[in-house]
Amino acid sequence: QKSTKRCYAEAMESAATVVGTLVAAGTYSATSRHRLLSALIAGASVATLVKLFRSLSRSVFGLKREPFPLEEWHTQYEEDAVDPDIAIFDAHHHLWDPRIHDKGWPVHPFMLKLLYVLKPSISHGMMTQDPKITNSFGLRLPVVIPYMGAELLADIKGNGRGHKVVGTAYIECGWKTPGVEECMASVREADMAAEVNQQYPNICNVIIPHADLRLGSAVEPALQYYSKIPLVKGIRHGLAWSADPLICGGPCDQNTAYDPKFREGFALLSKYGFSYDCWLFHEQVDGLADLASSFPDTTVICDHIGFPLGLSSYRMEETVPKWKASMQALAKCPNVFVKIGGLGMRWSGFGFDERPAPPSSDELEEAWRPFVLFVVETFGVDRCIMESNFAMDKVSCSYTVLFNALKKVVRSYTQEDKRKLFELNAKRAYRILAS
Questions:
Q1: pLDDT tens-place string over residues 248-273
Q2: Predicted model pTM
Q3: 163: left (phi over 0), alpha (psi -120 to 50) or beta
Q4: Cα(290)–Cα(165) distance, integer angstroms
C-alpha cells in the first residue's frame, strides 16, 4: 500500500511538473521585458523541465523501458518445469495493449498514450487508485502492462526450461470499438488475436471472443462475423456478478442467465456450432447449470472452477459448501467442461499476490489441491481442462510455477489422464481434435 501511495505521489508530482512548465513558459512570455523576473522564471522552467524529463520512461528515448511493479516482483523467483515432457494446450489466456486496443476504459485514448510515456512506476500509480480494481485484481495490476504475443511466449519460456506448450486458446478480455453497431463493438478483438496467431503460429490457435447475448437475436451479425474466422470456436459472455461493492463483475446482473432475451441470443450459438465460455462466481453456478440443461446441444465451458469467492465480504468457510453443491449440480449436465485455473487471482482469497516475493509451486499445490481434486473428482477426468489464465494469474506466480503446481496436484494420475487434463480435453472441447 505504501508503494502504491508513493507511485501516486510521483504521478501527481509529474502532472504538476507539466502544468508548472506550461505556466512558467506563459509567464515568461508575458514578462519578457523585465529581465530579473524573466531570469528567475527561466531558471524555474529549466528545473521543471529537468524534473519532467526524469519522469519520462526510457522507452521515449528508444531504450528498454523500466519494469512495472509486477515485473519487478517476478524477478525474485522462478522454477524449472516439472515433468517437461507433458504437452500442454493452454486453454485460457488473454492479450492486451491498452495503448492501442479499444478496451472501453473510461479514459480518453490520447490520455492513455500520455500515461505510457511516463515511467511505469508513475503511470501504474495513476491507474491503481480505484479500490474496486485493486481489490479485485491486485496492487501490482497486470492489466496496465502491455501483454501481447511476445510477452506470453517469454512467460512460457521462463528461465529457458519451461513447459512444453503445444498450443493455446485466446479468450476475450474486453473490447469496445466506439461508433459501431452495438453488437459489433467487440469483433475487432477476434481480428487482433488472429493477427497474433499469424505472427506466432504456436499461440492463439483457438479464439473465443465476446458476443453480447443480452441483445437477443440482434447479436447475430457478430456471430456471422465470427463464423468467417476459422480459429473462432465459440464465444464468451460472463455471468460474474456480486453485490459486494469491492468486487468487479462482468456485463450482467444477478439474473442474466435466466433472462429470456439473453437466452434468445444463446439459442443462436448452436446454429453456428459455437461453444459458450463463461466466467462467473460461485453464486451464478446454479444459473449456469440451468442454462446448460436448457441447451443440451451447446458445449458449455465453466471458466476458473466457478470462482469460489473468499475475498472482501466473502468467507471461504461459508463459500465452499455452497460452491460444492452448485458444482455437483452443474456436473450433472454432460455438455459442460470445467477449466481448472484462475486460482492465482485474488477472488478466492489465497493472498499470494500480497507477499513480498512470489510463492513456490509447493505452496500453491498445498493451497489449490482441495479445489482442484474436488473438481476433477466431481466432473471426471474427461471434462476438466487445465488453464493458465495468464496474465491475470501472473499476479500470484510465474507461468512455469503455475503449471508446476497443477502438475503436482495430479502427479499420481496416469499419463493418459494427465494428457487429457493438460492437452486433449481442451482440443476436444474446442473441436480441434476428434472426440
A1: 998 899 999 999 999 999 999 999 99
A2: 0.89
A3: beta
A4: 34
